[in-house]
Amino acid sequence: MIAPSDGSWIEAPLVLLMLAAIGLMAWRLWQFLRRQRTAQGALIDRINSLLPQTQCGQCGHAGCRPYARAMAWGEAINKCPPGGATTIMQLAALLNEAPQHLDPAHGQEQEASVARIREADCIGCTKCLPVCPVDAIIGGPKLMHTVIDRECSGCDLCLAACPVDCIDMLPLTAATAAKWQPTAGGRDSEIVVS
Amino acid sequence: MSELPKTRHSAASFHGGIYLPPRKGKVLRHRIMPQPLPPSLTIPLQQGQGTPPTVVVEVGTRVLKYQLLAQATEENSVCAHAPTSGVVAAIGDCPVAEHGHPPRPCIQLRVDHQDEALELTANSDYLNLDDHEMRRLIESAGICGMGGAGFPSAQKLKAGLAQGVSLLIINAAECDPYICADEALLREHAREVVQGAEILRRASRATDCVIAIEKNKSAALQPLCEALSSSDIELALLEPRYPSGGERQLIQALNGRELARGSYPHDQGVLVFNVATAHASYKAVALGIPCVSRVCTLTGAPLITPKNFDVLIGTPVSFLLNLCGLEPLPTQEFIVGGAMMGRLLSDTSVALDKTSNCLIATSDEEFALPDSELPCIRCGRCAEVCPAKLQPQQLYGAVRAERMDLTSEFGLDACIECGACAYVCPSSIPLVQYFRAGKSASRSWQRQRNSAQRWQVRFTSHRRRLQLQRRARAANKAAKQRVDSAPPFSRAQAREEIAAAVARVKARREQLGVSTDDDAEERS
């Protein structure tokens, strides 16, 4: 006698079948979650690509990508002053929402600008170095600091960190106009800021 | 007419284009006129997209004709020379002929009417010069593309040399209906142009050389054929269809192959130079004369005697207009650079540069104010005439909608701004204006996007760096805490620990059977 007498041998394939069904469902759930996660990630990437990447934090997040993630989970789209109306329109089109006005609680739309350190006044305290979100300030302790204007995103964050107020925000046009000017004799003249 | 020189026939024709009635007859009645000296010259230093050269004179210096004013220091800058003798009055930014351009660096020269020239050294045996020496002479003479682009010719020759040039094209097509500076130059100086072509061919080590000219340039053809009869430079006769003189269109017509979008002629082993550039090269290499003047057509109905002038670089537009007798009209504008591709002048005090081949005074009969713009009806005529094979109606939509991602996809960068689309547009849409605005908007959008991408990368690495710093700081703190929490140092305990260690070593040595130094001393 191989089969048990109480007839439970009939249930063995049933148990196997149920286990397989549970496994399949778990597998499908796992797939679904993974797909959701990558879809959400792709959405975050697309939102992030519309943001101006100044990393200024005026939206209340620690940078553009964190705000993009928050928007993917339903946060308001009108909190980015550097992007302004153009960015809001693009975000509205992407997220299928109604375009809104910029939320004044987060600041006003402004002309693009770059920071410039008045080098004579800089005391070399290094306090502005870690607050720069794009590492555009170079300098060492007790040595003059300067802003690499090509890399500066114009976020204003260094202004508050400076204890001697030696950083100015210049409109981008004036900053780029301040270039080498040809002078008599071919000598390098001082950088002229209009 | 002498027998026709070796002629190359068009291998293929470019797409689209339009037939424009030429309006050059009245100007070509006169010879090229030398120009009287104006009271002052404003010599522009920057050509086209290039960077300004380094100024080598100071305010107040007296300079002689042909004296070097600014030395080219970078690859895309061009030397500037004094067109006549005088005193440097000012060095600074002045408004330039290009409409909408910010002021550019210029040297203002107060002319002293002595026209005292530097001694020049001519090369009698110029054709046997080393090609490197030829390029050096062309560079130091400040020669740039005189057909309109203003790219330094020596740099173009170098770029061609690096790739190897099979075909050198001298562009005499001059397809604009008003410009006839090149035609007049060929009519009067055909031999010199051919010699200039020979110089450029040797300087670029090109195997073949072709002078391309439209069939209907009757004034220039005979002298050109005579000059070519003793040379192996070929002649190419083009269909007079605008824009046959466009660089890419010309290459397609002569080489039979279309130039890929975004690639340069030298990628295909072709170099194109304007006739005026060839003439200037001849003057520079054979006679040692730097580029201080060029032929410029002054035309338009309001001018009583429209003429071609040998214009000194830096002559104010108003001075030239007065020479031709300008009838003032209430609604009058001035176009520099030809009727199809030229740009409106902001005012007539600006100076002409090395690329200004034409100056047109407009009148209402010839240049009627454009009708008000009507909606695009998608007739597709613009696409039929576009020599760059673009879809202007599609581009127009993208530019108006400010879809900068689409404009580059639709090939806005390939637009040569020839104006054929706007010419045929039944809705009078100023398409070229839209495309020019779209190009600059697209460039700034691209720049913004590039910096955004860079900022994103820098932000990510900044955050990672700060995180690592935080972790390192926490680890340091923990280590310090472990040290602090250890029991205080006691001398007795330390002594015990040392004794224990000594005992441990001794025991181990005994176990291994090694004699210690102390044992050795005892034995002795």
Please give a structural write-up.
The complex is a heterodimer of chains A (194) and B (524). With 194 residues, chain A is mainly alpha-helical. Chain A contains 6 helices and 4 strands. In chain A, the strands form 2 sheets. Chain A has a two-stranded antiparallel sheet with strand order 1-4. The longest helix of chain A is centred in the first third of the chain and has 40 residues, at 11-50. The termini of chain A are far apart. Residues 177-194 of chain A have low confidence and may be disordered. Chain B is an alpha/beta fold and 524 residues long. Chain B has 3 domains: 7-323, 3-Layer(aba) Sandwich (Rossmann fold), CATH 3.40.50.11540; 370-484, Fumarate Reductase Iron-sulfur Protein, Chain B, domain 2; 491-517. Chain B has helices spanning 25-28, 131-140, 153-163, 181-204, 218-228, 247-255, 275-287, 317-323, 381-385, 392-400, 404-409, 420-424, 431-485, 491-512, 517-523; strands at 7-8, 33-34, 40-44, 54-55, 62-63, 68-71, 80-81, 86-94, 104-111, 167-171, 208-214, 234-238, 270-274, 293-299, 307-312, 334-336, 343-344, 358-361. A 6-stranded mixed β-sheet of chain B has the order 2-15-14-18-16-17, sandwiched between helices. In chain B, helix 2 packs antiparallel against helix 3 (153-163) and helix 2 (131-140) crosses helix 4 (181-204). At the A-B interface, loops of A face strand 4 and helix 13 of B.
